[in-house]
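explain this:
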Amino acid sequence: MAECVVVKFSSDSVRVGTDDLSNNVCDEGHSQVAGSVFGLYHIICLLISITTFILDIGFDSWLAYIYYCQGQGSYFALTVTFLIFPALITTAFSLRWYIIDGDEPTLSKPPLWKWVLRIIMLLLQLAPILRYCDALACGVHSITAGKAGNKLRQQKMYRKMLDEDSDAALLRLFHCFLHAAPQAILQLMILIFHQSHASSVQAIQARAVICSLVSVAWSLTSYHRSVRNARDDKEKLEWQGAVMQFCWHLMSTVSRVLALSLLASLFPAWMGTVCLCHWCVMSAWLAVGHQHTAVCATRCEELLFSLVLGLAYILAFIAPRDGPTRYSYLAYYLVFFMENTGALVVWCVASSSAQNPVLYYGAVVAQVVAFLLALTFMLLYYRYFHPSGTSTTLSKSISITDPNMDLGKPGQSKQFSSQRTL
């Protein structure tokens, strides 16, 4: 049970140049790496990512407009805050990565029109969409080169597609933890709080919550898929595994968001306290138990990495490094279960089933069933669908974690991943 995080908190990380990669592939005599073909599976995944992003942003913006028209200032302010702040963060990251790529001598310089398009999309706060579109364009160029018989260019464009897809997946992950997850909790809390007053807004709120939940689950699935695609020493995540992983993350997110929303509808301060304590405990656990990960160069970066990942752990578990993770999952989901159960107990004690028995009992059953289903899907994924083993189809590639490593040693597979500087 192992996943990999490709974020690199380092000032000396180097982006792999596709020209260098092409030379390596050519030198080895590999005209085409097995499985390195842009196809229908990649297209569907990218289109799902674009669609879920647009729907998530669209419904939340619609709700913000409704709250403003109805004079609900507090709801409007919170909804807009969780719209603008995450967009600014992801835009800043994306712009910085573009600048870093522009300064990298091994990468080709983009034309002026492309920079103009980037600036326009960034000003519109649509950084992930631009990355997804670039990935699609590189994939199409890869297909065109393959049909023309230019295998070297096909692999070069395929690698560029992997770079853009990896960047987009990482940006989307940031955006979901900062936007989709808080929005889901906020809108579901409002929905529960005003459940006795039927209105047309509730239908929009419900759709917004569903879109946010799906967005979080898909971003986690897409992230893990892109990490495996970007590494030559890892087996790729097939569509069956992606579907199973999506179901696992969706049920886990539903269970968590529902528990926190039930608590927030009664005691908002308590919910904030629980999240703060969870963040501190998880950050301390990461700082003490997961030192010297491959993504950090100094101890200071380790601590910063622990704080950022600990914030993400409020909602989901992301392994901080390669290696066996069954005990980490066991510890995390034990805490996860205890916190969710505590929130349910507070809900059952502080609320009354006489007011709305369907909501009272339905919320409890839904939260418990979603958690059990999440565990079931996780076990099924690791038992039957996890891409175990390593891939040896490419014996030479570019190492960005150890640039002094001898590429000439036989049988030594190198890591290829888009490790970004935050």
Remarks:
- Residues 1-35, 389-419 have pLDDT under 50 and may be disordered.
